[in-house]
Amino acid sequence: MKLVRFKQQGAVKIGKLVDGKVIEFQDLPGGTSMRALLTDYERLKPQLEAASGHGTALAAVQLLAPIDDPQKFLAIGMNYQAHADEAAAAGIPIPTSQLWFNKQVSCITGPYDAIELPLVSEQLDYEAEMAVVIGKACRHVQESEARSVIAGYMVTNDVTVRDWQRRSPTYTLGKSFDTHGPLGPWLTTDDEITDPHALEMVLTVNGEERQRDKTGGMIYNIFQQIAYLTTVMTLMPGDVLATGTPAGVGIAHGRFLRDGDVVRVEITGLGAIENTVQAEKVR
């Protein structure tokens, strides 16, 4: 299924996308929380699959971030070799193990919402990534069993403010500005994806291609990532893992995002998100 959160006539709803139409789910115990739905997904799955009706044209609703309330939004750094090499050329040391950092959940925004160019920086950068969404509470997961805890996949852009990234050894500040975590356009459940490591990812800025790679180019695949993280912590339903970006980020070429730029990230089988850069206004 392609699970969506959307707004229609001012109300937030949850549903699924079928043949270009959104079918709303009725009487969900968790209301409009995708995290709550995933927590009870196995029991609810027959009800969700059976949901039917005429639906509403996708163009007639506003798509929201499929998950807006995860307990964790984690991301791995320099997980494609070519990107690690270009980062090293920019003065960022290549890690010798998986390098994880937090994106604060307050950065999450919708798949077509604006992303802000902060008042305090001119070094706004993009990072096309596949996001993995956890479906079960899990700890000490073996790599061979990791797929069993995945709910599904989304497209994300790990938007980064590079000078603020350098201000914090954990990267958290530069990764967590408001609006710098667009997610979507929907949550594609794991059973729809034959091989999550065989998907093509493309990022363009104003129609110009900047990044292209396949998810199989990861240094640490998503199953290794889950095994590594669950050695440390319990992952919960709805937790979001951004799995790394390929080469071609702006900092490597001195090409940062500017007010009015349109950034599009598309991943085979998962759809596309598209966000316009908008200069932050004084509040």
Task: Name the descriptors.
12-stranded mixed sheet, single chain, alpha+beta, 19 strands, globular, Vcp-like ATPase, Chain A, domain 2, Fumarylacetoacetate hydrolase, domain 2, 283 residues
List the helices and strands and how they pair.
Blueprint: E1 2-8, E2 11-18, E3 21-24, H1 34-39, H2 41-50, E4 56-57, E5 62-63, E6 73-77, H3 81-89, E7 99-102, E8 108-109, E9 115-117, E10 124-125, E11 128-134, E12 150-157, E13 160-161, H4 162-166, H5 172-175, E14 181-189, E15 200-205, E16 208-214, H6 222-232, E17 240-242, E18 262-267, E19 271-279
Parallel strand pairs: 6-17, 8-14, 9-19
Antiparallel strand pairs: 1-2, 1-5, 1-14, 2-3, 3-4, 6-7, 10-13, 11-12, 11-17, 12-14, 15-16, 15-18, 18-19
Explained architecture:
- The protein has 6 helices and 19 strands.
- It is of the alpha+beta class.
- The chain folds into 2 domains: 62 residues, Vcp-like ATPase, Chain A, domain 2, CATH 3.10.330; 207 residues, Alpha-Beta Complex (Fumarylacetoacetate hydrolase, domain 2).
- The strands form 3 sheets. Strands 1, 2, 3, 4, 5, 6, 7, 8, 11, 12, 14 and 17 form a 12-stranded mixed β-sheet that branches. A 5-stranded mixed β-sheet has the order 9-19-18-15-16, with no helix packed on it.
- The longest helix has 11 residues.
Q: Estimate the mean pLDDT confidence.
A: 95
Which fold name is given in CATH as the topology of the largest domain?
A: Fumarylacetoacetate hydrolase, domain 2
- Structural class, by secondary structure, is alpha+beta
Largest sheet: 12 strands, mixed
In CATH, what is the class of the largest domain?
A: Alpha Beta
Q: By CATH's scheme, which homologous superfamily of the largest domain applies?
A: Fumarylacetoacetase-like, C-terminal domain
What is the end-to-end distance?
Answer: 40 Å
Please report the total strand number as a whole number: 19
Number of separate structural domains: 2
Unreliably modeled segments = none
Note the total helix count: 6
Q: Looking at the structure, what is the overall shape? A: globular
What is the radius of gyration?
A: 18 Å
Please name the CATH architecture of the largest domain. Alpha-Beta Complex
Helix content: 10-25%
What fraction of the residues are assigned to beta strands by DSSP?
Answer: 25-35%
SSE run: EEEHHEEEHEEEEEEEHHEEEHEEE
